[in-house]
Write a structure and sequence with these properties.
The protein is mainly alpha-helical. The chain is built from five helices and no strands.
Amino acid sequence: MGSATTNFYNRAYQRGGYADAAQEVQRLWVGGHREEAIAAVPDEMALRTSLVGTDEMVLGRLRAYRDAGVTTIRLDPAGDTVTARLDTLARGLDLLRRLEAEPQPAQAPAGSAR
């Protein structure tokens, strides 16, 4: 969670509705209590802000990002070996291709409420 004074990720989690958790994780991390900080991350926060889970779960997150207007996504594939990381990256790219093939949701006209 980086710096105790300036931290982009902490502010992003706070804006995402996880202010208390983000502040507590950062307090623990900066205080050198790394294992406690990791344990303090709520499962919901990790699942809602990361591309982890089944293919359908990840596809749902990608849809939510797309529908919110996100146009760029950074993939940091997990894996213990280069081959495992490349396999995970390939799965992510396959999911992005599936998403691109889906019909786009209708966009509301500018200035209208949804």
